[in-house]
Specification:
Strand order of the largest sheet: 3-2-1-4-5-7-6
Number of domains: 3
CATH class of the largest domain: Alpha Beta
Main location: mitochondrion
Oligomer: single chain
Bound molecules: S-adenosylmethionine
Largest sheet: 7 strands, mixed
Structural class: alpha/beta
GO cellular component, one term: mitochondrial inner membrane
Shape: globular
Subcellular location: Mitochondrion inner membrane
Family: Belongs to the methyltransferase superfamily. METL family.
Number of strands: 7
CATH architecture of the largest domain: 3-Layer(aba) Sandwich
GO molecular function: methyltransferase activity
């Protein structure tokens, strides 16, 4: 049978005819080998081999400069645009549902504040820009995680509202993979107060929540003697750790918050003195339980500010502060400040309560502390090294600082966490003191009004 090629001629004859018309030379005659359906371009192949020898990043760089990439740009743009549209749709859908729920909760609150569920109550407070307590913040974050999953499941159903009970949240959270602590905080009971059954359950699952129950937090002890011996070498040994973490910037923030009469608790060797602003302060008292530490602070302060007269240096424990103050005349402060001290106290909650009792009306406690971080992997590391840290620095670096503030009954007016959440920058006040104008939210400042707390009762 004769195969037909182009324009109905037999195959060979057809190809030859086209070549003749277009004046294309035979490939075999150019290369000197037989006709091949896949001719090898040796130059191209060599170039390809050279490229393959380059490091990966150079190969990608060459690809991005190539014609091939430029030609496929349109398709990449279309794909990118498509992906953005999908993400935007999901985001807007979420905002829409959230807005619907906000309207619903506001109506409920207006009619009967008691009818609000725990989630609705937290949500309304968050929306009113109230600062949630650290445990409430933690729980609200878990509610939000559950809400995202809920919305995914009810993609098109606008009518259902997300409103789980704390028990439903607990059950959902306990099933989440990759979480070491699977218990959400319980807000309605005082912190630390648990039924025998719950305690037993915790021992079984090893899900410890509070500082007191976490077996990885080493027991508190009086660290005065340790720091008495450490004082001389302290600055030299800690300086590289602090430089590596750029702590100078954080200390500067701390010292900018000082106002009026100031008490610095656990002053150590006076590492905050280089960032001291004498123009902000009327008087300052340095306190530490270690005499050697206080002596070093005194030396540093005198050489840096020889003309600053209203300064005092006291040896004493933060846990005995109120007692120390009442021995003399009634002493109160505008600002009580502490840096990296709570981790070294025997009873940090008592120390905080004492600091609060020494505040003048409207006074603030300013803290720069280190403790548990935002991520499980960080906390696991802190827990793992906690004993060693206690031995080398007499410091319990895996305490939950937020929980200490809660237990001391203080309100937080400013909170920032850095270094994966392990460095806590906090400004606290007594609950009965009003917010200062600069601490109010933008809207409240704009309308010159005081925030009205959201209450269920
Ligand atoms: C880690 S050092 C921090 C020192 C300093 N604030 C700084 O930022 O470098 C802890 C300090 O707390 C002091 N300290 C420990 N327990 C204390 C207590 N119960 N009352 C007062 N100071 C205490 C120690 O003597 C030590 O100087």
């Amino acid at each position: 049978m004769i195969r037909l090629g182009l324009v109905g001629l037999p195959a060979r004859t057809g190809r030859t005819a086209v070549r003749t018309v277009l004046r294309i030379p035979r490939i075999s005659s150019l290369r000197g080998y037989a006709d091949s359906p896949f001719p090898i371009n040796h130059k191209e192949a060599q170039k390809q081999r050279d490229i393959e020898k380059l490091p990966k990043w150079r190969q990608w760089a060459l690809y991005f400069q190539s014609e091939k990439f430029k030609k496929s740009m349109t398709i990449y743009y279309i794909c990118g645009f498509g992906a953005t549209c999908v993400a935007f749709f999901y985001y807007m859908r979420d905002r829409y549902h959230e807005d619907k729920q906000i309207q619903h909760v506001r109506k409920k609150y207006k009619n009967d504040p008691k009818s609000l569920s725990e989630y609705e109550f937290l949500m309304l407070r968050k929306l009113s820009q109230e600062t949630l307590r650290p445990l409430e913040e933690k729980k609200y974050r878990i509610y939000q995680m559950m809400r995202k999953e809920f919305r995914r499941k009810h993609l098109m159903d606008k009518s259902v509202m997300f409103n789980p009970t704390p028990e439903e949240l607990e059950e959902w959270y306990s099933k989440q993979p990759r979480r070491t602590v699977k218990k959400a905080p319980v807000l309605d009971k005082p912190i630390g107060e648990k039924t025998a059954e719950e305690k037993e359950q915790e021992v079984l699952t090893n899900d410890k929540l509070t500082n007191a129950e976490n077996p990885n937090i080493v027991p508190a002890e009086d660290t005065t003697e340790f720091y008495e011996e450490k004082a001389a070498a302290y600055d030299e040994e800690i300086k590289w750790e602090e430089r590596g973490m750029f702590l100078g910037k954080r200390r500067k923030w701390l010292m900018k918050q000082l106002k009026g009469d100031v008490l610095e608790v656990a002053c150590g060797t006076g590492r905050n003195i280089p960032y001291f602003y004498p123009e902000l302060v009327n008087s300052i008292t340095f306190l530490d339980s270690s005499r050697n530490m206080v002596d070093l602070t005194q030396k540093k302060f005198r050489s840096a500010y020889p003309d600053f007269r209203k300064v005092g240096f006291t040896v004493g424990k933060a846990e005995e502060l109120a007692q120390l103050a009442s021995e003399g005349k009634e002493i109160k402060y505008d600002t009580v400040v502490e840096a990296f001290g709570l981790c070294a106290h025997e009873d940090p909650v008592k120390a905080l309560k004492n600091m609060s009792s020494l505040l003048k009306p409207g006074g603030r406690i300013v803290l720069l502390e280190h403790g548990r971080g935002t991520w499980d992997f960080v906390n696991n590391h802190l827990d793992f090294r906690s004993e060693r840290r206690m031995k080398t620095w007499a410091c319990r670096w895996n305490l939950d600082i937020g929980e200490l503030i809660d237990e001391a009954g203080l309100d937080i007016t400013y909170e920032k966490r850095v270094h994966l959440g392990t460095t806590w920058m906090l400004v606290c006040k007594r609950p009965e003191d009003p917010l200062r104008s600069e601490e109010k939210s933008f809207m409240n400042k704009l309308w010159g009004r005081d925030p009205k707390p959201i209450q269920r009762e």
